[in-house]
């Protein structure tokens, strides 16, 4: 059996990607597509995770994608990623995205999101990643926050799965009355 890989510091895999938002990235409203930003975030997440793991990694889930402010064509977007947490084969990469208007120098924080990645070996199986060496108080805070997020996410999934199983259409139709939806008469007669 191979010995466990030595812990690697967060600084070993910290990655920043800066990209100019060109007109080809614009949506119909003239702002940058959310999908363009997601794609850049996925690249940074991959770079951090693969560098930490020393292995090919895949994206498993993404938390906390809330675009607080639009990004405009012509702005310089920087994505700062670092490994916040490692499990056995999974890693959480936190990514802070900022957009800078080069003329005014104004910087917007557009979002901070968390990508869970899994390292895979040459046969495509999840493989163990090195532990994370925490060197600063921020490293410790991020690791603890990631543990909390993981715990709350698992609790939410369980709670929601139970709620879905117990949810009976007939008993819950009244919840729709104040919502902005309509149920067709045909469907209503079937419920
Ligand atoms: C990710 C994947 C390898 C998990 O496979 P699996 O058989 O469930 O493997 P495991 O149960 O051993 O899980 C492996 C790790 O992933 C984590 N994991 C699995 N599903 C997860 C999820 N939805 N969210 C967060 N972590 C998850 C597990 O907690 C485990 O972490 P740990 O080893 O640090 O404890 C598998 O689902 C996969 O290959 N998915 C496709 C990923 C991909 O191709 N992404 C690109 C999209 S195009």
TrEMBL record:
InterPro entries: Cytosol_ACT, HOTDOG_ACOT, HotDog_dom_sf, Thioestr_dom. Residues 11-123 form the HotDog ACOT-type domain. This is HotDog ACOT-type domain-containing protein. Belongs to the acyl coenzyme A hydrolase family. The keyword Hydrolase applies. Signal peptide: none annotated. Pfam families: 4HBT. Keywords: Hydrolase.
């Amino acid at each position: 059996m191979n010995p466990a890989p030595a812990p690697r510091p967060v600084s070993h895999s910290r990655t920043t990607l800066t990209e100019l938002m060109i007109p080809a990235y614009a949506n119909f409203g003239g702002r940058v597509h959310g999908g363009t930003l997601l794609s850049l975030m996925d690249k940074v997440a991959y770079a951090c995770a693969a560098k930490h793991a020393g292995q090919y990694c895949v994206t498993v889930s993404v938390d906390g994608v809330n675009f607080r402010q639009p990004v405009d064509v012509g702005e310089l977007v920087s994505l700062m990623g670092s490994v916040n947490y490692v499990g056995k084969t999974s890693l959480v990469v936190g990514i802070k995205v900022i957009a800078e208007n080069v003329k005014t120098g104004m910087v917007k924080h557009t979002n901070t999101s968390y990508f869970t990645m899994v390292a895979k070996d040459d046969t495509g199986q999840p493989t163990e990643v090195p532990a994370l060496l925490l060197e600063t108080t921020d490293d410790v805070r991020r690791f603890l926050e990631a543990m909390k997020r993981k715990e709350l996410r698992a609790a939410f999934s369980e709670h929601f799965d139970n709620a879905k199983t117990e949810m009976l259409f007939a008993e819950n139709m009244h919840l729709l009355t104040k919502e902005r939806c309509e149920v067709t008469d045909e469907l209503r007669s079937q419920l």
